[in-house]
Amino acid sequence: MAYLINPQNTIAVLQKFNFHFQKKYGQNFLIDLHVLDKIIRAADIGPDDCVLEIGPGIGTMTQYLCEHAGRVAAVEIDKNLIPVLQETLAEYHNIEIINEDILKLDITALVQRENGGRPVKVVANLPYYITTPIIMGLFESHVPIDSITVMVQKEVADRMQAAPGGKDYGALSLAVQYYAKPQIVANVPPNCFMPRPTVASSVIRLERYEQPPVAVEDEKLLFAIIRASFNQRRKTLANGLTNAADLHYTKEQVQGAIGELGVSADIRGEKLSLLQFAQLSDILKGRVSE
Ligand code: SAM
Fold first, then answer.
1. How many CB atoms lie under 10 A from the CB of residue 215?
2. Which of 76, 82, 110, 126 to mutate to test ligand 1, by most ligand atoms within 8 A of the CB atom?
3. How far apart are CA 230 and CA 272, in angstroms?
4. How would residue 158 be classed by pLDDT, with cut points 50, 70 and 90?
5. Of 30, 9, 27, nearest to 186 (Cα)?
6. pLDDT at 232
7. Measured between alpha carbons, how far is 234 from 162 in angstroms, rounded to an integer?
8. How many angstroms is it from 197 CA to the middle of ligand 1?
9. Measured CA distances, 53 to 70, 127, 140, 148, 177 (Å)
10. CB of 102 shorter than 6 A to ligand 1
11. What values do phi and psi take at 145, rounded to 5?
12. Which has the closest alpha carbon to 141: 182, 97, 111, 100?
């Protein structure tokens, strides 16, 4: 089977199988070799690696993953793509094609089965409608992962990599940066896909930390504080935390904790670093909540 990564070969396969794109599944297939090369290089895959690909589509990237990795597990929700993948990947014997919804799959069990529970590398051109649930699901469920190299909407990649103070900095930046070191490796225009998406895209590599970069007593409280701080973006941190439905601190307790942190009383959440959020969380943990 010829490589699919160009418009002619992609169209030929789509026509052969009379395939119709399903908008609800975020189907935008990659047709640019240059971008594919960048993804494969950034993912840094070798024969000892087991790769989890989310949404293989017609198998464009999967062909290259199979050639570089020891083993590949590809999870595709659209049953109409399974016969296509069986043909486009027929010559590879290190692939398992799984017809499932990635959000419903027990990925830890899959990693156990495919790689004896050792960390896998996730590589994907993600369906944009579920980017955040997929990535946060992988981190929060503590699936053994070495790195995640994915194509996402450019705006989302910018938010994942943002530093405190900027307009892109928010709950997603902090959540991702608690688990991994982000690095945007390429910006990708719409004409690299078929059909073209309406937004610009970026490839981002997230290198999983063995230990989070900050120590915190209560992870759940940390994330509740982060969410509350960015829920009402133009409010002060003190108001955000006092008004949060799932936190039960008085205004005095919140103001006292912010004072103890050593920052100004009217600071906004977007100015705090991950370390400061962790410190604030530990200070509030010691306060009695009502
Ligand atoms: N990897 C292919 C490529 O680069 O050409 C396709 C990428 S396309 C942006 C996203 C793929 O994810 C589609 O094949 C789509 O059917 C699949 N997909 C969408 N939702 C999914 C889900 N919940 N679980 C698994 N796959 C999904």
1. 9
2. 76
3. 11
4. very high
5. 30
6. 75
7. 18
8. 13
9. 13, 12, 19, 10, 22
10. yes
11. -135, 140
12. 111
Instruction: Please tell me whether residue 120 adopts helix, strand or coil conformation.
Output: strand
CA of 46 to the centre of ligand 1 (A): 23
- Give 30-91 as a DSSP string: E--HHHHHHHHHHHT--TT-EEEEE--TTSHHHHHHHHHSSEEEEE---GGGHHHHHHHTTT
Residue with the smallest CA separation from ligand 1 atom 21 is: 77
pLDDT, tens digit (0-9, with 9 covering 90-100), for 30-61? 999 999 999 999 999 999 999 999 999 999 99
Helices then strands (H, E): number in the chain? 12, 9
Answer yes or no: is pLDDT of 204 > 90: yes
Residue-level pLDDT at 286: 79
Q: Is the CB of 59 under 6 A from ligand 1?
A: no
Which atom from ligand 1 is nearest to the alpha carbon of 55? 12
pLDDT bucket at 107, cuts 50 / 70 / 90: very high
Round to whole Å and give the CA distance between 61 and 57: 9
Burial class (CB in 10 A: 0-12, 13-18, 19+), 9: middle
Q: Give residues with Cβ within 8 angstroms of 118, minimum separation 6.
A: 50, 111, 144
Nearest CA to ligand 1 atom 3: 29
The one-letter amino acid code at 216 reads V
CA distance 177 to 278: 12
> Nearest-CA neighbor of 184 among 150, 134, 133?
150
pTM summary value: 0.94
pLDDT value for 288? 63
What pLDDT digit, counting tens, does each position of 251-261 carry?
A: 999 999 999 99
Q: Is 55 in the pocket of ligand 1 (CB under 6 A)?
A: yes
User: In this model, does residue 74 exceed pLDDT 60?
Assistant: yes
The pLDDT value recorded for residue 91 is: 97
